[in-house]
Amino acid sequence: MILSMTGFGKAVKVFxxxxxxxxxxxxxxxxxxxxxRLPQAYxxxxxxxxxxxxxxxxxxxxxxxxxxEPIDGAVAASLNIDALKQYKVQLQAMSQQLDIPEPxxxxxxxxxLPDALKSDLNTSEIDxxxxxxxxxxxxNAISGLNAFRLQEGKRLCGFFEEKIDAIQHLLDSVSPYxxxxxxxxxARILDSLQKLDGxxxxxxxxxxxxxxxxxxxxxxEEKLRLQNxxxxxxxxxxxxxxxxxxxxxxxxxxxREINTMGSKANQAELQKLVVGMKDQLEQxxxxxxxxx
Length: 292
Description:
alpha+beta, four-stranded mixed sheet, 9 helices, two-stranded antiparallel sheet, Ribosomal Protein S5, domain 2
């Protein structure tokens, strides 16, 4: 079963008075385009997380966001007194040098400055147990995303089957027009010759040239190749997971055969069928971009 590149997964686990959350989402992309946002304390395991995602998701524009929050009753942060002292000294010096008044609300001014608070959640080091928990949460989020991708893949599979069936129906409708097309071409050429007064022609040579001309307009090979591509597309659709690129290549080959049929059609009814095939194929090409 194919997988979509679009998906979302989320996982949460409580550890040491912290609620650790991982969210991962993906969109379509030709290659793996990975962006990770982590708390500073988790930066040392970023490479491990990248490797896990690369092995699990293969392709797509992937965003991973990991954050932690204090659970109810846990102390999230405390005042950074040393930093606040330094800020106050510098603000007082600035007031004297620039001849501007000091702040009326020292509390509000100081607490809005960077690093006014220090949090136990953002300590520079974490132990191995917490590292393992973070990895576990990320893996669970990835599992959720893959479940989403599988569900979306099933929807895409049904969509492709419907469109391939529509092209197959249009292709089957071509045959009844082929014999009548030859007769119409022959009649049109004969009618044009009869309108040329005083012109004589060799009927045997005319038949030979007519056969040669009709052979150039023959679409039997294009029909056969298109039929093979339709079958190959369905076989690929149900064989394995990461088939997006292959399905894209097959749809390009289908387009070549349909375009050649259109250039050889030389008949309004056949042109309508070809336009219908092109319409169905364009819808396939749009959605193939979302397949892993």
